[in-house]
Amino acid sequence: MTASYLRRVKVAEVERVASRIKRFRLVDVENKPLSEFSGGSHVTVCMRAQDRVIRNPYSLMGCPSDTSSYQISVLKVDNSRGGSQFMHDNVVVGTELEISEPLNLFPPAKLARKHILVAGGIGITPFMSMMSELDALGSDFELHYGVRSAAEGAFCKLLEARYGSRIRLYLQDQDQMVPLERILSNQRLGAHMYVCGPKPMIDWALRTATLAGWPDESIHSEQFNAPPIGKPFVVKLARSRREITVGGHQSILEALEQNGIDAPFLCRGGACGQCETEVSGCDGFIEHNDHYLSEAEKASGRKIMICVSRISGDAVTLDL
Q1: Burial state string for 206-217 with b = 16 or more CB within 10 A and e = fewer than 16
Q2: In this predicted model, what pLDDT tens digit does every residue of 66-81 receive, in sequence order?
Q3: What does pTM read for this prediction?
């Protein structure tokens, strides 16, 4: 996928669903049907701010077979690069945006005998469409959803009303923790675990599943890393012989797009590997912020994921 594959939509509904989370319902600007998607899919939303274009991935939450609209939810993040703040402060009913076609990097395993879903905070969003799909198929699933407090937990009452005892809620302010070790130790053969939420929670869940003896093919996670803020540096393109400055609030990918270079991407969050790029030279150190490259690949200094990683130094030369 490249930045040229975008669809115009407008905001049909905005709802505050938690203290720092808003839900947005999007429809085609010409009221045409949108594309069907599968549970766990996301779209990239293109936001045109005054001085730059921001592109962030957001999970689709509605029924996958409903082509009349898409639903996403956005957490307002402190020290945001601008995307979540733009959505919360500038986007209202009637606002036009651009989105990519749906992409699924987090689908439920078709042959799983049971699905154990583990969500933390805004990590509930991919599970909304996944549960809708699994429920329609009559699949066996249960959700374990941890939130800081009732005020910060999105969709808790809706989920309990729709899925009943298959939903287990855990409130951190009441000292309730997801008993994951016990949950995983009591599952039948063929069960799969899925986790989405803050990075420390994902790391903990993956480690717990591994220590419990779960095979790698039965453990699934999704996390979109936001490109961090840093000091400006120069990207030298070896093949096109161009030099482009990457701003402090930009990713390399965003800087390339701003300068008319249609670089490939899928997730824009360091997860899929589509934007992996060869490094020809680096005047500084690569700050790897993805969770796709192996530790050996990161240590080699020969590859970089241009959607989230940057350098600490003056310049990096890429094979582009």
Answers
A1: bebbeebebeee
A2: 999 999 999 998 877 7
A3: 0.86
